[in-house]
Specification:
By secondary structure, this protein is mainly alpha-helical. The protein contains 14 helices and no strands. α4 crosses α11, α7 packs parallel to α12 and α10 packs antiparallel against α11.
């Protein structure tokens, strides 16, 4: 009994230390983390900037502000923003239905959400083009209404919406699953309408998740190439995306010009994502105070 009592403090102390020692010590773990991030992220990004620095300021400015490049910026970032906003709305609805309702084929629909993750982007682009071209299964009916999807900016938005939907659904879904339904029942018992309950109880709890899904969908869309290249039509000044313009520069052996455009996309994307993350942090802090 005495030895057992004496060993209890040691057991408690080792139990407190054990969670931090599942992986080798802090020095080794931190060193590996920095090495891995440098190898995968920092070194490639640094190479882009270093290649761009070989250009003069005048050449850089001319490369990134030409009329054709500016048109590609507007299309890439504008279509990505619109697609991410669409996914926030409809992705949130899909997540709500999957969490709150039981219906036949629910597991199939749930698995179908992940299809853009598993489907090669080139296959997705070809499929969307076949469906929405003027003689496609869906496009032929839209053409009768005067709506042209394939080979237009609308087709770009459609492709980016397709590849960005899973990010919003899979981000919001676990938050809805962990939400306390007792709060909704309490609001309803106090006379709140379903709309008031959603706006004042449900929505504040999922806003950070919606912002995260928006950021992920937007980031994915800005760099998308495979699923867009076929349905866009790649018409200069009309439906030419920036990633395609970078590929074109590389095919012309203009490596400095390609990296200059890539740097602009990188900086703009970083600023937008930083803004979204700050907004997300502010939203969580505000929700915590309430």
């Amino acid at each position: 009994m005495t030895s057992l009592a004496q060993s209890r403090p040691a057991l408690r102390q080792s139990a407190k230390r054990s969670p931090g020692r599942v992986i080798p010590g802090f020095g080794i773990s931190l060193g590996f983390t920095i090495f891995y991030l440098a190898l995968i992220v920092l070194i490639p990004l640094s190479a882009v900037f270093l290649k761009t620095f070989t250009m003069s300021w005048e050449a850089f400015w001319a490369a990134v502000t030409s009329e054709r490049v500016m048109a590609s910026y507007r299309l890439s970032f504008g279509a990505s923003l619109i697609a991410a906003l669409i996914n926030v709305v409809f992705g949130g609805i899909v997540a709500w239905v999957l969490v709150r309702y039981q219906f036949p084929g629910k597991r199939f629909i749930d698995a179908l959400v992940d299809l853009p993750f598993a489907l090669p982007t080139a296959v997705a682009g070809i499929t969307l083009t076949a469906l929405y071209s003027h003689n496609g299964w869906i496009g032929q009916y839209l053409a009768g209404l005067g709506i042209k999807v394939a080979f237009t900016p609308l087709g770009v938005v459609l492709a980016l919406t397709f590849i960005g939907l899973p990010f919003v659904v899979r981000t919001v879904q676990p938050v809805l699953e962990e939400a306390e339904r007792e709060l909704e029942e309490a609001a309803a018992s106090l006379g709140a309408s379903p709309l008031q309950t959603f706006i004042r109880v449900v929505l504040p709890s999922i806003v950070p998740a919606l912002l995260t899904g928006f950021a992920l969908a937007f980031a994915r869309a800005t760099g998308e190439y495979g699923s867009v290249i076929f349905i866009a039509g790649n018409l200069p000044m009309v439906s030419e995306i920036t990633p395609l313009f970078i590929i074109t520069k590389l095919e012309q052996y203009d490596y400095a010009g390609a990296t200059a455009i890539a740097v602009v996309m990188l900086v703009i994307s970083f600023i937008l994502l930083l803004t979204i993350n700050l907004l997300q942090a502010w939203t969580r802090k505000r929700a915590g105070k309430k």
